[in-house]
Design goal:
The chain has about 375 residues and is an alpha/beta fold. It has 16 helices and 13 strands. It folds into two domains: about 200 residues, Rossmann fold (3-Layer(aba) Sandwich); about 160 residues, Glycogen Phosphorylase B (Rossmann fold).
């Protein structure tokens, strides 16, 4: 008989890394997901996952003022009793004090708005707004750090995030890398284009990728995804026929593009972990990445890709693209495929069982 559990997740707004983690746990153990909001019903139905929305934004008048406040208020009111309660995200852990059971936090990252991105965020506000926001952040940080100390097991999604927890919250964590369904990605062919799958947001540095390919009209770049910077980036690429934007694509289309590209380009700023490089390597395609954050734990320089120096320039990327010829990319195929298997769903589940169930009397005889 399996133990009873529930998974609390901030919200589903797409098939991101956090969504993949909780979906994998839900399928493996049959535990329902409770989220503040669910926008991606199609994904959840396709995966045959039981998921419920607390409808935080629709229930709370606070959402008219601040979505963050609305979620905080919603999760603070939440209470549940189960053998195991998994918290995923930056707001769901605020329910910890009112829940009963063995409490596990899977930390994708401490909220960067509270720590390393705090001053940058405040600088964008007017003086009165800055004062109010400082109070909100002080309150949120107090709640968040108290919630973390309520946990029985603290899991980080990478060594990078583990170091952030040590630095900002003075807590240590075990590392379990997020799961990737590596078997669905296959090497198909080698066509003359590079693929960017990063979300079109400032920290992903897709603008540097576009600047580099504008200077290489003989190299073809395909950009898949969307985000708040889509308009600006399309304007930046205007007049460059070698740069193509496809927007968000289906899982099937993404697998096809990964299977056919020459290599992928992914250079985010201090990425928490990053699933895109794993998916690329699973398809046998090397990654042009950056020696920062989670990529230092996934991509092996000159073996499964090329790692640019920290804070890369367009010139750094141009040199890497010119170096990564079709012959060199093909030589990395087998190493990429081997590397990706370390981050499989099976390894994720086994590590979770070992760490979480092995630490309780419930799990010692059930699994």
């Amino acid at each position: 008989m399996a133990p009873e559990g529930v998974i609390l997740h901030d919200f589903f707004r797409g098939i991101d890394g956090g969504g993949r983690v909780v979906a994998t746990l839900s399928k493996a153990f049959g535990w329902p997901i409770v989220a503040g909001e669910i926008e991606d019903e199609k994904f959840l139905n396709q995966e045959e996952i039981k998921a419920f929305s607390l409808k935080c934004l629709r229930r709370s008048l606070l959402s008219r003022f601040s979505q963050t406040l609305a979620y905080i208020n919603c999760f603070r009111k939440f209470s549940w009793a189960r053998d195991f309660i998994v918290f995923s995200g930056q707001l769901a852990p605020l329910a910890a004090k009112k829940t009963q059971g063995h409490k596990i936090l899977y930390c994708h990252t401490p909220p960067r708005i509270l720590y390393d991105a705090r001053e940058e965020t405040l600088a964008q506000l007017s003086f009165p707004g800055r004062a109010l926001f400082r109070l909100l952040l002080f309150w949120y940080r107090s709640l968040y750090e108290k919630a973390l100390r309520e946990m029985d097991v603290l899991i980080a999604n990478s060594q990078n995030v583990r170091r952030r927890l040590q630095k900002y919250v003075a807590l240590d964590a075990e590392v379990i890398y997020p799961p990737v369904k590596v078997e669905k990605f296959k090497w198909i062919s080698q066509e003359p284009f590079f693929l960017s799958t990063a979300r079109l947001a400032p920290l992903k540095r897709v603008d540097i990728v576009i600047e580099a390919f504008k200077r290489m009209p003989h190299k073809h770049l395909v950009v898949v995804s969307g985000g708040p910077e889509e308009g600006r980036l399309k304007a930046l690429a205007a007049g460059a026929p070698n740069i193509q934007f496809l927007g968000w694509v289906s899982d099937r289309e993404l697998c096809d593009l990964l299977g056919k590209c020459l290599a992928t380009v992914y250079i985010p700023k201090d990425e928490d972990f990053g699933l895109s490089p794993i998916e690329s390597m699973a398809a046998g395609k090397p990654v042009i990445g950056v020696a920062e954050g989670g990529l230092l734990e996934t991509v092996i320089h000159r073996e499964t890709g090329i790692l640019l120096p920290s804070n890369p320039s367009p010139e750094d990327l141009i040199r890497a693209v010119e170096f990564l010829t079709p012959t060199r990319a093909l030589e990395m195929k087998e190493a990429c495929e081997r590397r990706a298997t370390l981050f499989s769903e099976e390894n994720f589940i086994e590590r979770f069982k070992e760490l979480v169930f092995g630490s309780t009397s419930i799990g010692s005889w059930l699994w």
